Amino acid sequence: xxxxxxxxxxQADETRPFADGKxxxxxxxxxxxxxxxxxxxxxxxxxxxxxxxxxxxSCQAAHTGYMVSGRMKVVMDDGTSEExxxxxxxxxxxxxxxxxxxxxxxxxxxWTGFGQYAKPAS
Length: 122
Fold this sequence. Notes:
mainly beta
């Protein structure tokens, strides 16, 4: 790739819809890997809308990202939890469930965990 790159999530390299119309993942491919913008609609929950695609009991992706808007609750398999909101940096290890809190759309950017996210298990 060139020394300078400009891409738009609005013209993503790939878009993966979530079950029941509860959002989507827009992916941009870079030399350093995939960068994603996820749009989670109110009522979205990983265990309901991604688990059937992933085929695992909890989310096994590690996430490093930034919460643009909305609120999301993340609960680890061991029961520890955190709630993220606009402007928050997030780092989440594999083994968790998550859901949108409230009635506002939640938008998150992630530069480590979305490459295989919401992709049907092989």
